Request: fold
Amino acid sequence: MTIEQGPGLDDLIASWRDWMARRDVLTSADIDELESHLRDRIDGLADAGLTEDEAFLIAVKRLGSIDALSHEYAAEHSERLWKQLVLHDAPGADGTDATAAPIPFLRRANGLPVALALGVGAGLAVKVADLLIDDPAVVARNAAVLVLPFLAAWFAWRRRPPATAAWVVGGAFAVAAIALNAYPFLPGASTAMLAAAGSLLALWLMTGIVEARGAWRSDTARMDFLRFSGEWAVYYLLIALVGGALSALTIAVFASIQVDVVPFVEEWVLPCGAAGAVLVAAWLVGAKQRVIENIAPVLTKVFTPLFTLMMLALIVAAVLQWNLVDASRDLLIAFDLVLVVVVALLVYAISARDPALPPGWFDRLQVLMLASALVVDVIVLIAMIARTGEFGFTANKTASLLLNLILLANLAWAAWLQVGFVRRSVAFGRLERWQTGYLPIYLAWAAVILLVFPPVFGFA
Reply:
């Protein structure tokens, strides 16, 4: 028998809804769904012979604490994963029954000791390589294969991917390690620097397969990893700034008592700290998501207008003084970095946006940003083609040329979809799928400059 939803029960549920609404981890839609679960539980308890009051109290208790509920919703609604994790370490931290969490991973959500242990391992791996290898350039070239396996291990501990995903990622690390160390790079070779950059990007994306539990074909899984990458970069930068300031203060304090700690800081603290911070930042992404929830929309809304203005200024400068882009290779590289940041801002804005909201002023500003980026990309391509025609092909110019062509296609179609979304002729989901679906193209570019460019350009 199903209980009749009388005024008394409705008043109790309304009071419960008001309490839930004052918490900032759940949206109105989440509360609606929770209310549906709550009423189902009340009906089941009423069938067992309990009164409305008794059924309500027991149903609320069984539904779980607000922290456990928000963790559960983060798992069930992975497209909002980065917004709905809470500051508490794990279910049960507030005195509630930890077994109430239905997802085993949630009971492993803290993991700070594991992250610290892996961070120490990454730092020691870098330092051992530095002690065993006399050439610092070789150690720097192997940075990705020395540090990122520990990040992959962190993902594996948290996510428990299938064995096939672990084998694929392990094979990618093995291939990269062989290429970086078996190729006979010449001293100071640009192909060596390109190979190092390619290994960093390629292996970072490969670790995403572990984080996604092997479901790399899923648009949602790829967007979750892109969110992680952006949030990780914010935390890593903050750690680097604080670590740099602390190191400078330590050097100054010891210098005041005539003790020189600069060699120790340069040879031990900086390399080990830089490697270990990769794992600490990864842990912070999972443990302190609400901090980034508040920062991410602000970052995108602040930097998108600034980068748009900067690109418009670059376009004006290029038109007024054409040799500005034709004379300096370093400036062309700087332009490429600007375009990469534009793509990152676009992806970050997409990940932070509620797809249910209609287009607004910020979406129109993104159209202007993308249009400006396209013009800048075309200018850079023209300059690169001119330089290649004058000086011939080199590894650096070819890699930059390929990257610009990839960025041009990415930005052009993204701009087309963004315009369609603003005009309400294209669904927001298509823009998100386009950006996440483009990741394999960047992975292919990184693999090419890691594996193909060195022998093609004579390891020079």
Notes: The CA atoms of residues 37 and 63 lie 8 Å apart. The radius of gyration is 26 Å. Confidence is low (pLDDT under 50) at residues 1-7, 70-109. The chain has 20 helices and no strands.
